[in-house]
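WARN no homologs supplied; continuing
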Amino acid sequence: MIVRSFAPAKVNLTLHVTGQRADGYHLLDSLVAFADVGDRLRLEPAEATRLKLTGPMAAGVPADASNLVLRAAGLYDLPVAITLDKHLPLAAGIGGGSSDAAATLLAMAELTGSPLPAGATGLGADVPVCLMRQAARMRGIGEDVQPVTGLPDLHAVLANPGVAVPTPAVFRALSEKNGAPMPIQLPQWQDRRSAIDWIAGQRNDLETPAITRAPVIGEVLAALSTLPGARLARMSGSGATCFALFDTRAGADKAAEILATSQPGWWTTATTLR
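OK structure emitted
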C-alpha cells in the first residue's frame, strides 16, 4: 500500500507575541491559513525506515534522525520508505518542517489504521495547527488551536530571498514581549476586501527583529508592497518568507511573474490561502 500526502505551506497572516513563560517559551496569538503550494510525501511499508529527499528545495534538508518526518514516522510501529519531495524553502517561516511532520502523521495513521499517537503534538509548536490544515487561530505556545470559519480565500504572492532565519534568534531580538492579542471575538468578514483590511490592522511582532537579523527581509517587503494590486505586505512567522495579498488570483499570478522576473534569485510563487 502506498500513501501520498500533501504538506501545505502555513502562513501567519497575523502573529502577536503576548507574553513569555517562565520556561522561556513565548505566548502567541496568530491567525493562520494554508497555501495550495507545499511539499509532497510518498510512504509505503518497508523492511526498515528510510528517507529519500527530492525536489527543487531538497538541498540542505537533513536526511538523518533530526528530520521531523522521520521522528513522526518513528511514533508508529511500522517501518516505512518515505520520499519527501521538497518544494518549500528551509527555515522560512512557513512551517515546512512542521507541515511535513503533520503530513507524515496523517499518512502513517492511514497506513496503520491507527489514531494519531500521544506524542504527535510534541514534535513542534506548529504541528497541531498543521494537522488541522485549514484557517485557524493559534494561541499559547501553539497548543491552543481553534478552526476559523468565514475567512474568505485570500490570493497571495509568497517570496523568500533564500536566507534562513533561526527562530530562536528572532525571539531573542524581540524587545516587547507583552503585546496586545487579537480581539477575543474575530470579526465576521463580509468579503475578501474586508478581511484584508482587518488583517492589515493587525501585526507580526517578529517582523522588526527579523529584519534586524536579516535586512533583506525589508527589501522583500518593499518589493511586495510595490507590486501592482498589492493590498498588504507582511512577513510570515519568524521569516524570511513574506507575503502580499491581492483582490484576485489573476492579480496575484501577474504580480508573481513580475517579481520573479525582477528577483530571479528569490523563491516566488502565487497561491491561494484558505
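The chain has two domains: 3-145, 149-273.
OK
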